[in-house]
Design a protein that fits this description.
alpha/beta, 10 helices, TIM Barrel, 237 residues, 15% strand, single chain, 8-stranded parallel beta barrel, globular, binds phosphoenolpyruvate
């Protein structure tokens, strides 16, 4: 079964979460992980769902105002965390912290969804593979002793596809996924799952499902409406 990650980002309020949980009750399989805003993680956990945080602090505990420790998140039952989302890299300089955060997560038995991806200019200048290799090296090189084929999952998310309605062609997406997998295999002897993220929706899911190299999806906007999200995940094998 493919892994499906629902990233709510900073969306949905208390009453929306209550409604969401009512709508999806008994309709979601174990391959779906919810990444609501941290405030609502407990609501999903208490209703029996697998949960992940959208981020963790770069420190384990202490004086970091506004951050949340992986240990605190682990206490409320997260199994996953997203690290290196392009919005965190852009707004919070997370390029600097990706390797530390991965180390903290994996040392505390929290699986990592590592987001990598090129922006539009890099895509147009055919720099995609260079960017992806650098983001992979930054994340992996210092963490080889804690990474295995199950605890690190790559989410390939072209930045120009996030929230724009645009997605890569099937040839480009397949080629890029295989390049990521081959690189990880030849350089680090790792066989990691590679998810696709960026404007996945009800209109393009059948197209994406034909691409064999996709091991799952990271879904932002299309996970916010529970009825539509259910229809979407029902189309994933
Ligand atoms: C994301 O931000 O991880 C994402 C995939 O968003 P969207 O599905 O809205 O493009």
């Amino acid at each position: 079964m493919k892994l499906i990650c629902a990233n709510f980002k900073m969306n949905l309020r208390n009453s929306d979460i209550k409604n969401y949980l009512n709508v999806i009750k008994d309709k979601v399989k174990e391959n779906v992980v919810f990444f609501p805003t941290s405030l609502y993680l407990k609501d999903f956990k208490e209703n029996g769902y697998t949960i992940g945080s959208q981020n963790i602090s770069f420190k384990d505990m202490g004086s970091v105002t506004g951050d949340i420790s992986v240990l605190q998140l682990k206490d409320i039952g997260i199994d996953y965390t997203i690290i290196g989302h392009s919005e965190r890299r852009e707004f919070f300089n997370d390029n600097l912290y990706v390797d530390k955060k991965i180390n903290l997560a994996l040392n505390n038995d929290v699986k990592v969804i590592l987001c990598i991806g090129e922006n539009l200019e890099e895509f147009e200048n055919k720099k995609t593979l260079d960017i992806l290799k650098k983001e992979l090296d930054d994340a992996i090189e210092n963490n080889l002793d804690v990474i295995n084929n199950d605890n690190l999952i790559i989410a390939y998310e072209p930045i120009w596809a996030i929230g724009t309605g645009k997605i890569p062609t099937s040839d480009i997406l397949n080629k890029t996924n295989l390049e990521i997998k081959n690189y990880l295999n030849s350089k680090y002897d790792l066989s990691l799952r590679v998810l696709y993220g960026g404007s996945v929706n009800l209109e393009n899911i059948e197209f994406l499902e034909k691409i064999n190299s996709i091991d799952g999806y990271l879904i932002g906007g299309a996970s916010l409406n529970p009825e539509k999200f259910l229809s979407l995940i029902n189309k994933v094998n």
